[in-house]
Amino acid sequence: xxxxxxxxxxxxxxxxxxxxxxxxxxxxxxxxxxxxxxxxxxxxxxxxxxxxxxxxxxxxxxxxxxxxxxxxxxxxxxxxxxxxxxxxxxxxxxxxxxxxxxxxxxxxxxxxx
Amino acid sequence: xxxxxxxxxxxxxxxxxxxxxxxxxxxxxxxxxxxxxxxxxxxxxxxxxxxxxxxxxxxxxxxxxxxxxxxxxxxxxxxxxxxxxxxxxxxxxxxxxxxxxxxxxxxxxxxxxxxx
Lengths: 113, 116
Fold this sequence. Notes:
The structure holds two protein chains of two kinds. Chain A is mostly beta strands. Chain A is about 0% helix and about 50% strand. Chain A has strands at about 5, 10-15, 20-25, 30-35, 45-50, 55, 65-70, 75-80, 85-95, 105, 110. In chain A, the strands form two sheets. In chain A, strands 2, 4, 5, 6, 9, 10 and 11 form a seven-stranded mixed sheet that branches. A four-stranded antiparallel sheet of chain A has the order 1-3-8-7, with no helix packed on it. In chain A, strand 9 (about 85-95) and strand 10 (about 105) form a beta hairpin. Chain A is globular, with a radius of gyration of 13 Å. Chain A starts with a strand and ends with a strand. The model of chain A has no long low-confidence stretch (mean pLDDT about 90). Chain B has strands at about 5, 10-15, 20, 25, 30-40, 45-50, 55-60, 65-70, 75-80, 85-95, 105, 110-115. In chain B, the strands form three sheets. In chain B, strands 2, 5, 6, 10, 11 and 12 form a six-stranded mixed sheet that branches. In chain B, strand 8 (about 65-70) and strand 9 (about 75-80) form a beta hairpin. The mean pLDDT of chain B is about 90. The chains are: A mainly beta, B mainly beta. At the A-B interface, strand 4, strand 5 and strand 9 of A face strand 6 and strand 11 of B.
């Protein structure tokens, strides 16, 4: 099915470990985003990529890095995981023809112990 | 910069009753407004959006919202809810241009619980 695919769906890390969350979309969208969702705080933008080859910081970028590998793929890396990064992470994409109606992935539930 | 405030963190309601989920926004420029729904353990799904034109916007699953520029509000309504509407609802805003173009800012979410 067309859409946004995130892997993995679940992950448990120890403090200090690193990992990369993968995201791929097959809708030929220009823009891609990484959000984190925490109870009572809604979704907060970590990083975004307005187009292939560009990335910019969002509201809560500290502790994260991103790579826009090509038009389809946008990965999020945690270099040294901390318990404060325990969250649900969502990738989303949008295209101009969508009039900003983001398509979201199903999320990655990350626990850092 | 823009911000969104959802005025109710939880809204309990009985089946077949009407419901209103309230959303206020703040922005110094023209905005686009959205409502998303998140069912348990799923991603977010677009319910409806306001870009321009008629201030009353109809979406999926019988929901509608009204854009009120003077009150900077975008409240979501449904005349008769079903058990299946139980979910968390998010209001979101983006500027209609400028550096925030295309980046959504979300409210804190409202959990709608429909009781039989």
